[in-house]
Amino acid sequence: MFCILRVYAFFSSGLCGSQATEVRVSEVEFNPNFVSRMIPTLDWSALVQAADGLGLLQGLPAELVTDYEKNEDFLRKVHRVLLEVEVLEGCLQCPESGREFPISRGVPNMLLNEDEA
Amino acid sequence: MEPGSENVKAVRRSKEEKKLLRKQIKASHTLLKHEGISTVSQPTKSLVVANGGLGNGVSREQLQDVLGEVGEVETLVMPPHKPYALVTYRSEVSAQRGHALNGRQLQCGDQIVTLYLSYINTVDSELWGGVDLPPGLVLVEEFVSPEEEALLLDAIDWTSHDEDVTVQKVLKHRRVKHFGYEFRYDNNNVDKDKPLPGGLPQVCVPVLERCVRDRHAEVMPDQLTVNQYQSGQGIPPHVDTHSAFEDLILSLSLGAKTVMDFRHPEGRSVAVMLPGRSLLVMKGESRYLWTHGITPRKFDVVPACDPKSPAAVTSDLSNHSNLTLSRRGTRTSLTFRKVRRTPCDCGYPSACDSQQPTAPPSPPSLPRSQTDACRLEAEFVHRVYEEIACHFSSTRHSPWPRVCHFLSSLEPGSILADVGCGNGKYLGVNPEVIAVGCDRSSALLQICSERGFQAFVSDALNVPLRSDTCDACISIAVIHHLSTQKRRQAVVEELVRLLRPGGRALIYVWAVEQEYNKQKSKYLKETREQGPTGDSTDHSNQESKSLTGNATDAHNTAQDLSGIATDCTKVHRESPAKLSVHTNRTAFNSQDLLVPWHLKGGGRGGCNQGRGGDEQGEQGSKNTLDPPTEAQAPVPNTAPSPVFHRYYHVFQKGELEELCVKVRGVTIQRSYHDQGNWCVILEKTGDR
């Protein structure tokens, strides 16, 4: 099911059609370079969708801003969503197939069944 | 003194004497039953000192002092953890005085230990230096005299003119003759309705009568199989068919000595040296559950005996420099059994053909289809790691330097995927990179999560990350868990898919060649480094070491490594497809195998630091001796720790490279051997 492979945004906070019953927000040291480097790897709309679903959008724009490397405000928002928010219990949903993947104790389970692989 | 009180004193003394005698006899029986040590009533130069063992907290110096009071001690063997010691005096007279020490008490810490001494036949110190014989197995040395031996050997006529009386077959290897009933090798059973005329040879009768008299047998056997082994011949490991014969099996060894290997289904093995003229008594678990066999060899590796050195510390079993080669001669065994008339009702149904309608489940074999492969890996990889996660993680705490080097060389902000990350050992090595891990074991990933790493459950064959996103991937000790070449290649392809052009992957897999460039890997080295009190459960699942176990393994190491070093393609297997169980810390004799893991500390439940385990040389805390106890019976071993088997395909030199060459869009940057692993660094081709 390549749709899953293609859509899953990099970190566990890159949720698509997410549901979370338990979320943890912690403080992580902000490193702008770190965040900048992560952004090109993300499926931006998937990230936005996920954050929205968690009610943690908090001003994250629907479209990726240009010149984001220098936009500290923007980077901080991304940082928060990517690194500070953890879904401890919940599930990930593939937007194409609707297939759900559970998250348990902070660990998403992305295993496919034999027939799905 | 009044006559009355004198009598009372005499009575009291003899009561004490009787009590002492009773205790001595009891100790003697316990030693026979649990340790396979048989005591004799005639004076000899050697004694067993029950309760005078390291396992009772008795120190060598203490015991040496006491024993030395009465005469010159030639050797003193104190097997680790055992509740007895074995002493040989210079002269029989001294030994007799030693025997009179019976009942002597020692102060050991805050306990009083009472010693009971009995005569034994020669201390074959190598044999007794820590052997933990399989339960039910007893070896009685010098059971027949040289004259009797000659008589018995003469009586066996290997020529074929007695075809009516005995059925003589020349098998591919050893020579065999049957008496009483013929044993059939096609169904491994006996023709119970067709007794052979003549019964058992007359010359055997005195031997059998002695067996009964010495309480090794209760009834006379009615079947005899004579095996003759030339040097280089052996017999494959097997359990004597339950339904064919009763519990007791007696085997008299004539001629040259040999080494017989006993193997427990869970992988433990004990090598027992059988001297000429000795009687092997097999009952219970050793007869019904353990397999026994003789490896076809021309030499056995046995420990060198140095009886000249006084009180030699022969309990240092890991000292391989003390080994020697013993050339095999011709050995003839007489195996006496009683034909079974009723179905077997032993307590070992898993190995019993009476209690199992079909043959016991055969060991797993190499998969022939994707489904088979998935099932094999599910049972012998994924399930196992889930069970052993905690213990496993505790033995995987030191990142390997060369892997760290690779990780540290990545640019800050690089995206790293660790496919098969386990407990996340490598995820934090370079804090400048963005690392994400995946693994099949939720239990191990839990540990990652607790450590603050990003990780998720997935299969290495289907990693849910987008293509061309990673600057680097690592897969350390993962691919060798896939059971077909196709699947192994598919993982490499998956790693390459994840890489962005110019990205690099580092792969480590376990190597057949554990010794390379004359450097033994840590995995092999560990046996040497363990001192006498070191834990060797990862070696043979015994709390105390089995010397004879070491002998075999050292032999295998020497043998197999030289074979491998010269000819990588000559990797022999037991059968084309069956997976054999590997003996930890020895060289590999097959590329596809099951490697035991001895679980400590409750697996999933308690995450205690512990030793045991298996492979790549990472150790937890030191093992300590149990507190001393006075014991006439040995402190029973705690139930053997559960053993799990993990499937591995170990790679030959060049094999990993060959695999990577088949993957498109990637070049091999480097290829090397590191600590018993074959390693490659791949680079994805294409423009950035």
Automatic annotation (TrEMBL), chain A:
<dbReference type="GO" id="GO:0046982">
    <property type="term" value="F:protein heterodimerization activity"/>
</dbReference>
<dbReference type="GO" id="GO:0070476">
    <property type="term" value="P:rRNA (guanine-N7)-methylation"/>
</dbReference>
<dbReference type="GO" id="GO:0030488">
    <property type="term" value="P:tRNA methylation"/>
</dbReference>
<feature type="signal peptide">
    <location>
        <begin position="1"/>
        <end position="20"/>
    </location>
</feature>
<dbReference type="InterPro" id="IPR039127">
    <property type="entry name" value="Trm112"/>
</dbReference>
<keyword id="KW-0732">Signal</keyword>
<protein>
    <submittedName>
        <fullName>tRNA methyltransferase activator subunit 11-2</fullName>
    </submittedName>
</protein>
TrEMBL record, chain B:
<dbReference type="InterPro" id="IPR027450">
    <property type="entry name" value="AlkB-like"/>
</dbReference>
<feature type="region of interest" description="Disordered">
    <location>
        <begin position="525"/>
        <end position="554"/>
    </location>
</feature>
<keyword id="KW-0511">Multifunctional enzyme</keyword>
<dbReference type="InterPro" id="IPR029063">
    <property type="entry name" value="SAM-dependent_MTases_sf"/>
</dbReference>
<dbReference type="InterPro" id="IPR051422">
    <property type="entry name" value="AlkB_tRNA_MeTrf/Diox"/>
</dbReference>
<dbReference type="GO" id="GO:0016706">
    <property type="term" value="F:2-oxoglutarate-dependent dioxygenase activity"/>
</dbReference>
<keyword id="KW-0862">Zinc</keyword>
<dbReference type="InterPro" id="IPR000504">
    <property type="entry name" value="RRM_dom"/>
</dbReference>
<dbReference type="InterPro" id="IPR012677">
    <property type="entry name" value="Nucleotide-bd_a/b_plait_sf"/>
</dbReference>
<dbReference type="GO" id="GO:0002098">
    <property type="term" value="P:tRNA wobble uridine modification"/>
</dbReference>
<feature type="domain" description="RRM">
    <location>
        <begin position="45"/>
        <end position="120"/>
    </location>
</feature>
<keyword id="KW-0539">Nucleus</keyword>
<feature type="region of interest" description="Disordered">
    <location>
        <begin position="350"/>
        <end position="369"/>
    </location>
</feature>
<dbReference type="InterPro" id="IPR035979">
    <property type="entry name" value="RBD_domain_sf"/>
</dbReference>
<dbReference type="GO" id="GO:0008757">
    <property type="term" value="F:S-adenosylmethionine-dependent methyltransferase activity"/>
</dbReference>
<dbReference type="InterPro" id="IPR005123">
    <property type="entry name" value="Oxoglu/Fe-dep_dioxygenase_dom"/>
</dbReference>
<dbReference type="InterPro" id="IPR034256">
    <property type="entry name" value="ALKBH8_RRM"/>
</dbReference>
<keyword id="KW-0694">RNA-binding</keyword>
<dbReference type="GO" id="GO:0005634">
    <property type="term" value="C:nucleus"/>
</dbReference>
<dbReference type="Pfam" id="PF09004">
    <property type="entry name" value="ALKBH8_N"/>
</dbReference>
<dbReference type="GO" id="GO:0000049">
    <property type="term" value="F:tRNA binding"/>
</dbReference>
<feature type="domain" description="Fe2OG dioxygenase">
    <location>
        <begin position="220"/>
        <end position="340"/>
    </location>
</feature>
